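Pipeline run #58 for the internal structure catalog. This entry was flagged by the ingest filter as a single-chain record with no existing model, so it goes straight to prediction. Upstream metadata was stripped on purpose; only the residue string is passed forward. Reviewer on rotation: M.T. Logging verbosity set to normal.
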Amino acid sequence: MSDVRRLALVALAAGLAAAPAVRAQTVSELRERVRRLEQAYFAAQAVAAPADSAARQSNFVPRDSATAGGLHVFAPRIAVANAREGAERAWSMLQSIFGTEAGILANTDFALQLERPSQVVAAPQEARRFIAENSATDIANRLVWEASQILSARLDRRLYIWMGGAIVPDPHPGWLLRATYIDLLSAPSPAARRCYLGALDGCRDAFDLPPTAESFRRWYGPAERRLIVQEIIAGEDIQLVPELYRDCVTRGDDSACVRLLQRTAESAIPAPLGRPMRIGLVQFALEVGGPGAFHRLTAAAGQPVDAQFAAAADMPLDSLLAVWRGRVLAARPEPVTLESKGAWVALSWGVIFGLLALRSTRWR
């Protein structure tokens, strides 16, 4: 709020305070008083508006622009070189996933606001603003994120819900393949283990393809469902259904566990292959399908989710899953090897902690 506006409002408040309140006022007198106060308020607004506008304009810095492919970025002049390099990197990443459809970004202007020093670039009102450091890497990452939201908004809603978020190209995709390998190997899910061993129906179940109403039935058996109930249901939730919880956890009644999980929000039940892996599978389908894959994916909106995968990859879902599984297994993390001295040190510490644990009362 500008100083002019503050002074006007103070004067208005003072007028209200100074108004006579000793005698009763007629309706006509009250109406006249309200009319005068309204006139004073609008007059104060008219005086303050130009001052506020000038103050806002003074916060803007002169702009330059950077263009790469379909990306057009307004940037402060001190950042235009980094903005140009960042836009080139971002465009390369966007094209690698979204292919020819990335061209629709030419309809959107982006405006860079520097985080440090804080500078707001003058840009058209409809420009999509984003905040970044004055470095090509940060500008590229933020641009990719912003552009990905625009492109992912074109996806079928059911596919978007299944993924749990937008498709955002990653400059280092190898980490996700390694993480997926670990999840397949270690997730407490029979479906994930079957997928790891090569059963493609296990991969479909682990991904919940096509999506089902009670996906936890595909993911977990009775023993795992009981453990999940213990993990995600606690406190007040137990007090609401104490007998059902006791039947599941204490007596091992799987029907009680199923009823508890049916009452639980789907998002609260851990999936063996969760949101990052699901988005990663869509990205893999786009990679396999080539430059036109994202166009085919959006054109398949309305079809079952697994059919959309097949359209994007231009191959049956099981064929896609087989290629994906091979890529995941090939990304197996390198085993950590210890020199003999390091191994003896690790073993010694293990023995020490084991002896301490045996002395604990929990083990008696």
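catalog note: Residues 27-59 form the longest helix (33 residues).
catalog note: Residues 7-12, 16-23, 49-59, 351-364 have pLDDT under 50 and may be disordered.
status: ready for reviewer M.T.
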